[in-house]
Design brief:
328 residues; alpha/beta; 6-stranded parallel sheet; 32% helix; 31% strand
């Protein structure tokens, strides 16, 4: 439970699937956040499932949420709709937590971030891995140079997109609407790469495509990246049809190496951090409180949410979107 006394906010949660599976379990465990409204296009389904939301208003029109006495609005909606809601909020200046990508294209995301800063709207973005306990441990090792200077890194993430594998045409498969493996998954990797190693520079890219329903989709993206202090890395993100998802991060240092990895149905859960030096190997397992692994990171993010500033994570996401805009 949060022990800070500077957070006591009435909250509205806007979204359907991820809002209920990811955000809701974390929210109800933090007593300083008072969930007052759930706004979803599937309100009838919520009623039919007999979900017990005592003293919570169920709404299906997101604009009505802004008329209520709510301090914080959390968005778990598709990028095109998210852009509309964030822009609508510039009139009301509610505190915001939202998802990546910020909008469905970089130029619009850049404009949104400029306005968030200009109008000093307290805001945060849910970059899952930046709130992951083992990624925070990895960041500490890098920053404090416990294994010396970083030499290079290699990241491979095989994901399973049900919409892609079933050839379903939705926003999750259409890049122009903020979907596709570039916007949904590569944004995560580029964000934590900058968090770990400093600003990213794209040196080269290779792409493999698939086609269905008359549209060409990126199914395999491989990047060569450079970062400050002569750090070089290779990043590969690709869709797979069968088996568990693999996410592997290998970092080579002057005095050892780190291997941060998971093989799981849940792409944030069951990570292991292996730290190797000349004389010792240490393994650390991730902490999991919730059934949906993403709720663990949302819980950590909410605990740190500041009411006085715009999170630097938003800058990291915007920089990742800028790199993505160069991958065509």
């Amino acid at each position: 439970i949060i022990e800070r006394d500077d957070i006591n906010m009435d909250v509205a949660l806007i979204g359907s699937n991820f809002a209920l599976k990811g955000y809701l379990p974390a929210l109800v465990k933090i007593k300083q956040y008072k969930l007052k409204i759930i706004c979803s296009r599937n309100i009838k389904k919520i009623y039919e499932n007999n979900l017990n939301f005592k003293n919570i208003i169920l709404e299906n029109n997101w604009k009505k949420v802004f008329k209520k006495n709510i301090k914080l609005i959390i968005l778990a909606v598709p990028p095109v709709l998210q852009e509309k809601i964030i822009n609508y909020n510039f009139k009301y200046k509610k505190k915001l937590i939202f998802e990546k990508p910020i909008s469905h294209n970089y130029s619009k995301s850049k404009k949104i971030v400029e306005l968030l800063k200009k109008r000093k709207i307290n805001s945060e973005i849910n970059l899952t891995y930046l709130s992951h306990d083992l990624f925070e441990k990895c960041k500490s090792i890098i920053s404090k140079k416990k294994l010396g200077r970083v030499k290079h890194y290699n990241i491979s993430w095989s994901i399973k997109s049900m919409d892609f594998n079933k050839k379903i045409k939705t926003w999750k498969t259409i890049e122009g609407q903020g979907g596709g493996i570039k916007n949904i998954f590569l944004t995560h990797v580029l964000s934590y790469c900058e968090h770990f190693f400093g600003s990213n520079r794209l040196n080269s890219v290779k792409i493999k495509y698939s086609r269905f329903k008359g549209i060409e989709y990126k199914r395999h993206i491989s990047l060569n990246i450079s970062n400050p202090n002569d750090i070089n890395g290779k990043v590969t993100v690709f869709n797979k049809k069968n088996g568990l998802q693999n996410h592997r991060i290998k970092i080579s240092f002057e005095k050892g190496n780190i291997h941060l990895f998971t093989k799981s149905k849940d792409w944030t859960k069951d990570f292991i951090l292996r730290i190797q030096t000349k004389n010792k190997t240490t393994k650390i397992k991730s902490i999991n409180i919730f059934k949906d692994g993403r709720s663990n990171q949302i819980y950590n993010m909410l605990k740190k949410f500041s009411k006085k500033k715009i999170s630097n994570n938003i800058n990291l996401c915007l920089n990742a979107e800028k790199i993505n805009s160069q991958i065509n």
